[in-house]
Amino acid sequence: MLEVRLLQGSLLKKVVEAMGELVVDANLDCSSTGVSLQAMDSSHVALVALMLRSEGFDHFRCDRSVSMGMNLANVSKLLRCSAPDDIVTLRADDDADTLTFMFESPKQDKISDFEMKLMDIQSEHLRIPEAEYQSIVRMPSQEFARICKDLSSIGDTVVISVTKEGVKFSTRGDIGNANIVCRQNTSVDKPEESTIIEMTEPVSLTFALRYMNSFTKATPLSNTVTISMSSDLPVVVEYKIAEMGYLRFYLAPKIEDEEDQS
Fold first, then answer.
1. Using one digit for the tens of pLDDT, what is the confidence trace for 143-181?
2. Which of 47, 96, 254, 257 has the most CB atoms lying inside 10 A of its own CB?
3. What is residue 200's DSSP assignment?
């Protein structure tokens, strides 16, 4: 038996919408420690990893580990039937071929339930090794989203360069070039508005802006975004989810940059 209850039901809606542009079908893996999901985008360029720990739920029961295949567009449709302040419960019997979504209003004067058919999705689970990154940038998530959006009106790739002074986002296109620099600043009253850089050595890598803009769909989940880079590893763009977990996006750098470094 699986039964998980989330007081902030709108959080689930934001998580699904954040992944929806990249992931079509995916397995939701539930175990006693929490709920996780790992999926590649359709072109196998970006990897999405979600973790929601069991202690972050209002109620969490998972008698045995289960993997449920679902279409994210269908999940999104069902979650849109819930009000912003509804409590959401997900329930499935052992070996069930459906997942039940239950929405309760805060006063509990309205309860709706929707049953969704599960799918059989064959997917291999990739083990993502823990890595030490040469540069880690923490910055306001809205700022990062704005930069990616602005640069994509000029070019289709972004060069992210990190030095002790700051992080520089550059692009070039038919109409010209653009550079946006965010300097390290920790002296603001609100920590979520600061840009913090931890680095062992400078890094400069090129990425497809189309993917970066897809990642920024997760902006509503967190005030800050963490961008971890090393010259020989995929970038990790991470959004913390309240106190319960994270949504991470992995993207390999574009190849032409590697030629410059050889």
1. 999 999 999 999 999 999 999 889 999 999 999 999 999
2. 47
3. S
